[in-house]
């Protein structure tokens, strides 16, 4: 078997004259060598078909790699290619050179041979806005050539106006032109590009785009057609028409499920749910008005019931129990008094049973049981039951007697002190609040904050309220503080707040009582208090807040005892302090904020050489001076000579704190003095009495007098130092815990 030579390479035209062309090339690489070369050439025109490249009618044979062709027609266009030959046959052709024979072509550079043009340009597919074009690669090219193709196109009307072609460069022999104008004729051609250059153009192709018409879509087709079961699968077919092809979308109950550019879209929907009743096919191709076709289906499903868990009703009033049933096909609906379904509720007497179907919601039914004149036998559990071929469902409703909110304070007195209007006082009785009497009375809405203060009973119920989703703008009511939006809170959130008040009455403590402060050092003081009057046995921890007057941030500490020592105090500085009690269910409100000035006095003497008599005389003098001061203060207050404040050396001043009105007067106790005791009470209230008891006890000291270092203050206790008492609102920034992001008020969330 003979071996053919390889194709020649690097064919170039090195010289072009008015009647001739000089060509050179490189011999084939490898064995066998070529014994002869044959040059093919022919005169062509720019519209010559690319199919004729193998039928050039002029040849020249030579043994060298140079050829000079003469006697050519000036200004004519010629094609040239070369093949190598040996005794076994002819090689593949070289690249093609197309030359315009004229001296003007010879500009000092050689002309390289390139591949023949692509051919067989054809229209593969079309729409109103797209044309798909395909073609064949060049016939004459080297086996090692790789090509990119440049497709030029434009509307035929634009080519007549001299508009430039649009160019698309790709690496394959098919391209889809998009974004074209409907019902328009386009002209296009292709060239091949390799490392040697760009080929001549292929033949020209003329093609029309389709005319455009708006999208049209049929009603969706759903399979299975008769029985679609909840939890199963269904297949939806959307059929649309239009030019260009429309974008088809499948919506089920308003939710986009599938979308594609097509005329037939099939979608399998798994796990069908009961709300998948509205199916829509939507089509839009950008022309005209988009179209939608819809279909409503029935999803067969077992019953599902939604209803209240608990219904509260006052004894003797009417209660209405309502269950909303969702099912298909229509279920049988029954009321029961027992979970086993053996004691039915019979229509008649105090019971009235009604069933309605919701016309606007196919497959929804309302079961309604009305109980007239509710008595003790009517409270308890009721069961609404629904059953159809796909299953059954039962829901439990508990009927409870509604009881007014019972509180530990005198409610009628609390309402009177807080200026509840006369028209709304019927909600207040001795030990309970009945909000039902004022719920629907517009004139009582401004009094709700006052009623809430009495109902909260000194406890912070915000933990319970936040669990019932009471919004932040109504949470202040849960601890007895006013809110800004009365109407909205009354309308929607008053019932859950009342429920929290009832639930917390036995679980939450009230605020601690009789807060006292005793200085025990230059930078420390002891704070003590008594357990709350309300639920003292439920207290797990106390939290003490203190800070410099005017600061926002407060320090705090917890203790399970009734006393705590606070440190880091500065002499001469005014501090605020408040305490609250709490447990795992929540906390009390804060005690009234107390302002005090921390001043610590140290008294010492060295009476060497003196006698016990001198000590006794000095003690008596001190006692007499104190009695004089007490009498002077009493007379001055009785004659209204003293103002709101009065501070003297080691004296006491009051700023009319609010707890004077809330408790039965102020009581100031003077604690012990060195080596003796002086106990006295100053009570200012409705009676204006002075109660005092003086004792002293002097003992021998062998020339030394020991000193005691004690000082303190509280609404009920003062010793050593200047203490200014006043109360402020319990809503003190830094003292009162803000609403945590998780809405929790367990223990002390702050």
TrEMBL record:
Keywords: Membrane, Repeat, Transmembrane, Transmembrane helix. Residues 7-105, 117-212, 511-606 form the Fibronectin type-III domain. SMART domains: FN3 (SM00060), IG (SM00409), IGc2 (SM00408). The keyword Cytoplasm does not apply. Pfam families: DB, fn3, Ig_3. Residues 303-400 form the Ig-like domain. SUPFAM superfamilies: Fibronectin type III, Immunoglobulin. Gene3D superfamilies: Immunoglobulins. InterPro entries: DB, FN3_dom, FN3_sf, Ig-like_dom, Ig-like_dom_sf, Ig-like_fold, Ig_sub, Ig_sub2. The chain crosses the membrane at residues 613-636. The keyword Transcription regulation does not apply. Residues 731-750 are annotated as: Disordered. It comes from the Eukaryota. This is Ig-like and fibronectin type-III domain-containing protein 1. It comes from Halocaridina rubra (Hawaiian red shrimp).
